[in-house]
Automatic annotation (TrEMBL):
Residues 1-18 have a biased composition (Polar residues). This is SLC17A9. GO terms for molecular function: transmembrane transporter activity. The chain crosses the membrane at residues 39-58, 78-98, 105-127, 199-221, 261-281, 301-321, 333-353, 390-410, 422-442. Gene3D superfamilies: MFS general substrate transporter like domains. It comes from Bugula neritina. It holds the Pfam family MFS_1. Keywords: Membrane, Transmembrane, Transmembrane helix.
Amino acid sequence: MSMPSNGLDQQKSMTSKECSSKDIKIASSQIWSPERQAFMMWMYFAGSIIVYASRTAMALCMPEMYDEFGWDKRQQGLVMACFLWGYPITQILGGYMADRFGAERVILCAGVCWTTITLFTPVFPYLSDGSQKSSLSLVIFSRMSQGVLQGMHYPSVMSATGTHVVETERTQVYSLISAGTHGGTLFTGLFGSIILHHFGWGSVFNFLGVLGYIWIALLYAHGDTKNHKPISVKENISSENPSKKASKPLPWRKVLTASPFWAMILAHFANGYSYFVFLFWLPSYFHENHPHSQPWVYNVLPWLISMVSAGLFGKLATYFLKLGYSKTFIRKSFNVFAMLVFGMALLSISYSHSYQTTLFIFCVAAASNGAYQSTVIMNPSDIAPDHTGFMFGVMNTFGAIPGFIGTYVSGAILEMTSNWNLMYSVTGWVSIAGWAVFAYWGSGEPIF
């Protein structure tokens, strides 16, 4: 009677080993080769440049648009912040769809839509009846729609790196891709300033829209979607991640009761508030407080430094990881620069009275915040490696909400008090509070 049982056990064991071997082969086939990884990294880097250039173009053009449409500070803050009304809506959805159906498909579909909105942004204010209220409403609607569509981009990129890049290289790869966010702001500041000066604010959006279409065409022609053999839904679920993340349910009770999860959320909340205020109000600050300064200098230099620092911190994080340092140590150590030094720099603006000193402080703030791409922003892949895209979407939702709150509140503060020092002091303390929370409760280890 025992013989058939042993035979069944052996058969089950062999079947299990065969299945495991198949899963490993399917999973390893999804890892990019070094050449493919380098190519896709630079493609997504270029995409980050265009995404952020189109996002920050409004801040660059705002002084010119103010002259044309007469928007006050509160309305200016509203126009810049409304992008972030739509941005949180699709973070979780974008991450889930990328994990489930493939990151590149989501990036391409959303990209066509937000690029079209960017291209036609100069048209929207003139489609109204001519009143200030109507033109403002149309611009707000277009910006919010752009935010909805761009909300899918970075959760999808995070999902792609979690799927196709080996664990020891993910921080470096994503940091270099994310350096494109600073490169996008740099691109807008440099080339956008030139276009703005010679051709007007509308041409800035037209130029970025055309670039967006070119990038989408290149990604479609040379990316994974077209050049790799299509796979079935069943195979896709298991091949997107070695641990079959799309079919593995997320244990919400463990997630919601884990301190590292809330530390990540609160830190990203604080960074979302402080970073977007820093990003959107910088051109207006120099335009009002140092009107004789060259726009291309303060619109370029901080973001050039930030882009370089993001890449360097990414390489350092990978280096320390290969030396055997824990992810928790790396995330917390680098966050000292990303949020503590960044917050202290914003506080010190109150003590600066010269253009050169103020520009230096902004450069220090931008350089230190470049480290953020190697800290909290990578935490979803640390604490929930099987649900990276989805968890990033959850985190980024909480990062976008304070972004529009902070941008609008800052505009209200300036409208009521005209006190830039007060506005930046509030922003600096928010960043420091976020650093303290992550320093105490944050972790780089899986929570389930």
